[in-house]
Amino acid sequence: MRRSRCKDEAFNQTAGHTLFRNGLAEFMSQHPEFASAREEVEQFFAYSEAVFFAPGDAARTGDYSLSRMETLCRTLARAEKGRP
Fold first, then answer.
1. Could you tell me how many helices (H) and strands (E) the chain has, helices first?
2. Of 4, 32, 38, 82, most Cβ neighbours within 10 A?
3. For residue 12, what are the contacts with CB-CB under 8 A and spacing of at least 6?
4. CB 44 within 8 Å of CB 51
């Protein structure tokens, strides 16, 4: 849960406001550098939303493993720096 909160904060900082799943389309249009990771970002936000706002539903979303989170972070960091 802690790792989800950190990643949420990174998205919030980049967006300039609190970012929720329903704001991802606008975020992606404003930050096209992250478009290649859109599907994974959406899955992360679905998991994060379940964990923080509907803990009973979190089990239905599956676990978002640490290795998966690390892969997403590396992908986003490369995209932010303009690397494929």
1. 5, 0
2. 4
3. 18, 19
4. no
Contacts of 66 (CB under 8 A, 6+ apart): 3
What pLDDT digit, counting tens, does each position of 2-58 carry? 555 667 788 889 999 999 899 999 999 999 999 999 999 999 888 888 877 776 665
Residue with tokens 């949420």: 8
- Contact in structure between 14 and 31 (CB atoms under 8 Å): yes
Amino acid occupying residue 27: F
In the chain, how many domains are there?
1
**Cα-based angle 9, 18, 84 (whole degrees, multiple of 5):** 55
pTM metric for this prediction: 0.81
